[in-house]
Amino acid sequence: MNNFPIVLLAMIMAAVTSLLTLFFFGSGSQAADLQPGEAGISEDLEFRIAELERSLLDMNARGTVVDAGGRQQVGAVDELMTRDAVRAWMDEHAAEFRLQPVEELAKGPVDMGNLLRRLSNPDLSEAESHEIWKDAAEAGLMEELLESYKLAVEQNPGSANAQVELGGAYLQALQHEKNPMKQGEMSFAADAAFDSALEIDDHNWDARFLKGLALSFWPDFLGKQGESIQQFEILIEQQESAGSDPKHAQSYVYLGNLYASRGEQDKAQAMFNRGFARFPESTDLKSKAR
Question: Which of 28, 47, 51, 56 is most deeply packed, by most CB within 10 A?
């Protein structure tokens, strides 16, 4: 027997129960505080859940499943369809029952445990990381989150990666810091962390790349652009002597852009062409190569 309708039922019941507990009226001790009409909404929701349970059990007995749009199908259903069905139903009824959409529920309450769990995702994108730090800033937890990275460095004094992660954390935090003085302090702290990483491992690609990238954004009067160029020149020499990695293409892009910003168009074009010869799949280099 296909067990996905049962899984679907369990997921919906668990999700609705969690939503009711966390986002509807709170704990049972708050029942006396319901406003006029809210008790009726709660009863209606319970009734609909019961209806949904009976319907799914009946369809399971007949070998029928439901897709994300509520259409009945016959046959097997994969896990992705199961998740889509749960999300579609919950999102459709979120406003009606004063519940948060499933995407908001998945993010969970913003606390240190939540932030660290989300940041530990190995497939975390830059956009997702930015959103997490934004949540930390809005929750007043940014300093505490930075302390967790400092602690990791203290516990792993010989780890270049721990220093890189600390530097990256500073770069993320300063994007959400409104105090210009603190932004400056974070910029210097990030640069120091990358230097510490390079002292441990002078071929750490991430440390040198992020150091060069960060320096390229410093104010012109501080004279850091030359140092930024130097870091990228070293990095390209190092990466060309090592194994190829798609991310290495960005070094040529940034160094070429830095040359161009100084009016050195020939050096910039040569760098774009040099990178494209090694990474013809890079759309950034393809658009710049001649």
Answer: 56
